Amino acid sequence: MLHDMSLCVKRGDLISIIGPSGCGKSTFLRCLNFLEIPDSGTIRIRDVEIDKLDGQNWNRAQERRAHKLRAHVGMVFQSFNLFPHRTVLDNVMMAPRAVKNASPSEIEPLARSLLAKVGLEGLAARYPATLSGGQQQRAAIARALAMKPAVMLYDEPTSALDPELAEEVLQVMRRLDEEGMTQIVVTHDMRFARAASDRVLYVEGGRIIESGDPEELFAAPEDQRTRRFLRSLL
Ligand SMILES: Nc1ncnc2c1ncn2[C@@H]1O[C@H](COP(=O)(O)OP(=O)(O)OP(=O)(O)O)[C@@H](O)[C@H]1O
Ligand SMILES: [Mg+2]
């Protein structure tokens, strides 16, 4: 259950969301993408706004707009979720081909350039099962980028990875940040949240308890609940 969660993200910002297990981090991300329909509120991404939300009375017109809004959002999960029977290249090409009805020759250059961007240029023909977890996650990022999203959402993208593989993924996210991509990241990696974010949100009990500059929030949290959480990690 979320309560009064309000967030305005500037284009190009990287926002980290931290908080204890079960506090609502995943639910919040899922609402942004309408994988979950909020009971009330407004969600706006670029030119698409869905207001007077009411999960009990979700209608066709709202579903159509949600569909439009989802096209602006790239989502990456903890568990990679690549299609196992498709090559890495096919995984990246599938969504733009389906949605834009484009031929492979139109989409392939973009897909290959995205694979290069995430450091997988040599692995386009491989199947997901033959890649490391870090490589699979980078392929999942390339796949999300193929739809040219306005914002990327990540739900614990590195939680299933060993530290060095996690680092490869975080590096890709830092690079996207430098290129001006807007990103919202749910993470348990406090070092990344502190070093890479423009802003950190501490969530507990379905509420944003504190939000601010990462250096300030980690060094001198204002709310005692944030302090308690950060202390519990030491
Ligand atoms: N589909 C659902 N229906 C009802 N309750 C749910 C549903 N999904 C999650 N919840 C509950 O909502 C709360 C928030 O869950 P959520 O998965 O968003 O937490 P989280 O912060 O992502 O936790 P974690 O760090 O463990 O991933 C939890 O109490 C959870 O049990
Ligand atoms: Mg979660």
UniProtKB/TrEMBL annotation:
Membrane topology label: Peripheral membrane protein
Compartments in which it is found: Cell membrane
Keywords: Amino-acid transport, ATP-binding, Cell membrane, Membrane, Nucleotide-binding, Transport
Pfam families: ABC_tran
Keyword field contains Signal: no
GO MF annotation terms: ATP binding
Residue intervals of the ABC transporter domain: 1-230
InterPro entries the UniProt entry points to: AAA+_ATPase (IPR003593), ABC_ATPase_HisP-typ (IPR030679), ABC_transporter-like_ATP-bd (IPR003439), ABC_transporter-like_CS (IPR017871), MetN_ABC_transporter-like (IPR050086), P-loop_NTPase (IPR027417)
Superkingdom as given in the UniProt entry: Bacteria
Family: Belongs to the ABC transporter superfamily.
Protein name per its UniProtKB record: Amino acid transporter ATP-binding protein
